[in-house]
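Lecture 7 notes: from sequence to structure.

We start with a single chain of 44 residues. Read the sequence below before looking at the structure.
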Amino acid sequence: MKIMSNELLVVSYRDAVSSNKDQDLIKYLKDEIQRRGLRPFKNK
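Now the structure, written as tokens:
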């Protein structure tokens, strides 16, 4: 997978979760987000 900016990574993760299609992709993106220390969703 190509290198993504933080913003693109979060958007891709949100899209993958909402479509709920590819669980391997969701896991990969989630691992990368956690490694970078990002928060894909705002705390409510």
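The first helix runs from residue 6 to 19. Keep this in mind for problem set 3.
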